[in-house]
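Hey, I'm writing a tutorial for new members on how sequence and structure tokens pair up, and I'd like a real worked example in the thread rather than a made-up one. If someone can provide the structure for the chain below, I'll link this post from the tutorial.
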Amino acid sequence: MSLLTGACNALMLGLLNMAAAHAGDSDRDSSLFAVYVVALALHAYAQRHSMLDAMGAVEHTIERVRLRLTDKVRRASLHLVEQAGGLPGFSALTQDTQVISQAGSQVVTTLQALVTLTFSVLYLAWLSPLACLAVVVVVVGYIIVSKVRDPAIASAMKQAHEQEVTVQRAILDVVQGVKELQLSRRERTGLRTYLTDVAAQSHAHKLQANLDTVFDHLFGGLVFMLLLLAVVFLLPIVVPSSNETTHQVVATMLYILGPIGAITQGLAGMAAVEAGISHLYALEARLDAALEPHHRRPTEPLHSFDEIRLDAVRMRYLDAKGAPLFTSGPHDLRLRAGETVFIVGGNGAGKSTLLKLLTGLYPAEEGCVLLDGKPVEPRTLEAYRSLYSTVFTDFHLFDRLYGLPETVDDAVVNAWIERMGLAGKTRCEGGRFTNTDLSTGQRKRLAFIAAVLEDRPICLFDELAADQDPVFRRRFYEELLPELQAQGRTLLIVSHDDAYFDCADRLLRLDAGHIVADERRHPGEPA
């Protein structure tokens, strides 16, 4: 279709030149007019379909890339996702795919312009071989100059992209740290200075990339206008020709300016697209390096267990140079079905790390996790993780209830919402919470509802009672946890509420990454 569009463009140019050369000949004018109308209709039809086909193909490709990369994010090591620093670390999935999406129509326009230029140059060769040769030399020379300058433009765009990610992180700091900033003038001033500096650097890199692109565009236009000057004033001296031919040559060259401008703009856009594609490749390479073992055969979720054991499990947090920052373990721990275990310790004691090791979210560098006496291996890891419903301290609340049993409908969810004291603040409609813009404590209650309704054997709640009022906190420990335990659930609770420690069967105390005590709260129970 792009070929047909370009051919129709060139045909209409020739028809206009012929009509201008035979103005006044009514019979010929009528024939040329009819052919022109047909060419125009074909041009409109072909252009519409080529645009739609190209944009459809681009959007389909982007959809597949996004799904592939988001699937890899889901399967990637939790370390990578945490170290990426949130959405700015995955900007290629949003910003760069948007750039590529917007380039869909531009690609088609560039291809059509290239075809139009080709046919127009052939037509120009028929009118004046020397003028055609001059145009070809200028166009080829311009392409060579552009290609020589491409690495510099790509480098500027890459630096601008990297700086933009830094700016986004700084803006995220402003939004997420607004409380701290409002309480500290020095922090506000320091962050504003830093944000101003990185924004200025981002602006400078973007400006440089745009200046390079504008220079290429202006350079091409200037050279072509000089070529026009030579055709009008010098070509008739070198190759004598009629005024009619000179007029047609000039008209054709002016017409060619349009496709050349479109190609120039398209090449500039392609530089941004190439940069976006390189960012996507770089992101995918990072994800591939951090992918957990994947098995094509899906594993069925587990619905029960007898015992989970950590056998000398240990892991370390490392800095950029590979030096250890914090060591968790080695841990030796037995967890029996139906137990309520409280995990306590000061901030930084390693409670959340222990939970991530226990759930298989962090791989053990040493030791192993055993389920009913069998080591949890890569092929059984997904099934093992299906034992857990969790609400971590840094939980994410999905506005939709994904993957709940078919027996759970909106009425069941709304009954829980009312029980959690959230009636009037949100509802569940069509499997979706109507409002999640709530306080942290209220959002934790919604996350608790989602976790309980998953109906998994183990419930893990990391400081869920924090940010709750005293009435709900008492209900959580004295009503909700015993109810879940009576259903046969195993409960892992990270808590600082020592007034409710007697609600636990066992109390694990952590300090500096080690389990320093394993206390049974009810004497006489089997060890």
